[in-house]
Amino acid sequence: MPISMPFSLSILLCLVFFNFSFSWAASDPAYQSLLQCLSQSIPSHNVSTILFSKSNPSYASVLRAYIRNARFNTSSTPKPLMIITPLEESHVSAAIICSQKVGFYLKIRSGGHDYEGLSYVFDKPFFVLDMFNLRSISIDMADKTAWVGTGATLGELYYNIWEKSKVHGFPAGACPTVGVGGHFSGAGYGTMVRKYGLSVDHIVDAKIVNVDGEILDRKGMGEDLFWAIRGGGAASFCVVLSYKIELVPVPETVTVFRVERLLADNATDVALKWQSVSPTTDNNLFMRMLLQPVTRNKQKTLRVTVMALYLGDASSLVSLLGKDFPELRLQKENCTETSWIDSVLWWANFDLGTSPSALLDRKLNDAYFLKRKSDYVQTPIPRDGLESLWKKMIELGKVGLVFNAYGGRMNEIKATETPFPHRAGNLYKIQYSVNWHEPGNMAEMNYTTQSKILHDFMTQFVSKNPRSAYLNYRDIDIGATDNWSYEEGKVYGESYFNGNYERLVDVKTAVDPQNFFRNEQSIPPRSSKT
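-> structure tokens emitted (530 positions)
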């Protein structure tokens, strides 16, 4: 039989590889210690399905699936000794308890979009607790709430809401593959930020696992910890299993548009006026402005793009901006009326008419090289300032800026209501954005240096004392901790949280005094054991 030889050989090779992998794992002390500990609370046949050591044939694919920044997917990137992929809430409890018993750090990954890879990279021996299996979404239209597992994506959340109601939505991010866990715990914002505020402004309950392995809801954890995990970076305090959110109403018809201008065609006028109009106009309107150096007819110039979501019809929008923003020259033919779910797809760069089921695609193993930074602007940049900015951006050549309008509901919520402090007084947030495809240290140094140069240049125009930043636009350049001291944490803590840093430190000291939950930019306790 001609098939028997290669088939037998393939079986033999599989067995050899399995036995080699099994024997390697069996001889690995860390694997054995963790396996033994986990087996005390999880049936042994289940443990083997959620535990991936480096010798497991699936280890590399599990690790790589949710790496969203190719800078941290290299042969030299520090990798976890083990990946734990819980299937049940009790598995999370066991992972927390056992990681402490065997003496390893634990990183917590939801969707993998941490821009600095802090959810899956560490320079000390560590495990990764990968939450992607805990993705259940339960919507109750009777009270217009939903329980959302932190392993779910924003796209899955939006899709599930759409299945239940065509006139409800949720104020969160535009990228559908972002994980709920990280997005919510870092505050979360999207195209309805001026109408409804942040994602965390609509969280009414949560289920967590604390450092002792206890599963607690809002009542059980107390109001201080509940406050902290809504914008303070939950990975400093506990593992969040799920959040309970309140849905928000959206009209049957919304309007989107995208208008571009070059410097030769009143781009500077548009950018100047955008700064005063976008934070003060009708709360139903969100306008994002993108600034990008481009080449046209072999000449370097700058493109200004205004993208918008309006919770209403196109005629009303054109009339509104005809009065408030004539420099934009918006016409009805620039606008598209659509449903809220289709606007979600449009913002995610899908073609109009794409099925909402596209939001369920997690796009695993989808990563490019990137660097992000952030700033807040409290006083409009004058015309000569914009013109100097255009010159600097064209000179650098690659880094783009995204201006996201605040105002509206954001002005009405106190800076201390959640850990996220950047409310009234902030006109807009800036994201510095640079992507590239070339691997290697030279390319990374080039593009990250460009980003730093532009960030330094912008010092004159942005918030001061402290210079504020957005936690979900993670930027390790702000500062990192080696010893988890209060003073080290204060450097980045005050940028992300301003005066709320002090209360976050108090919460950390109360709930995790031994500092088990930690990363390079985590909240330290007032006295820390490293």
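The mean pLDDT is 94.
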